[in-house]
Amino acid sequence: MKKILMIVLTITILIGGSLYFQNQSSYSEYVSMQNDKTISEELATVDNSPKDVKTENENPGNEEPPEDATIDDKRTFEDIALDKRLDEERKKNEKSYREKRIKGSSIRPTIEVPSHSIEDIIGIYKTVEAYMRENPDRFPEPADDGTRGNTDDPRIQHILYAGEKSGIIAGFENENLVAWEVKKLDGEYTNLLLGRKSAGEEWQVLSEGDVYQLREEISDGN
Length: 222
Prior knowledge:
Layout: H1 2-45, H2 77-100, H3 118-134, E1 148-150, H4 154-161, E2 177-183, E3 189-195, E4 204-209, H5 211-220
Antiparallel strand pairs: 1-2, 2-3, 3-4
């Protein structure tokens, strides 16, 4: 009798367990289906179009100039941008020269620029210093303070070394011309245009001014 009861009890437990796990499995499948449905609905509401992405051809040539940029008969927006960059380079060089006695430039020549020997550079410095002393109302006493040197302005380099020469530079070879920038008493920089007849001769100041003045003077043939 006891054996029969044990068999019946075992069968009952097995049947009950089977029903429990079957229900659990069905519930898990239901939950999984609901989750999949929720995820699908969320994906359907997502905007997959790219945001704030400009193609290479979008708005070509419509770059706005600086708000404070103004042009006149002499300066283009490109001139204004380059003038600003040159000013930043000069200020950076003044600071680095005071602190480390070094100067540099991130503005590279766009044409071939002649190099000069140490003797040439010494001669240039002597001519520049003499010119500064002759004009004490506009220039400080010459000092080794990093405020003088060969100009990095590519526009002036083009005036001197590209194409045929006219005006005050007519007849000069490239190696006999140089532009030296110098800081004035008012804090602005000017360019001294120097020339010599041939190698070994003394340098002479041919003209002085910014790129616009030099460009106009040479193009006018004065």
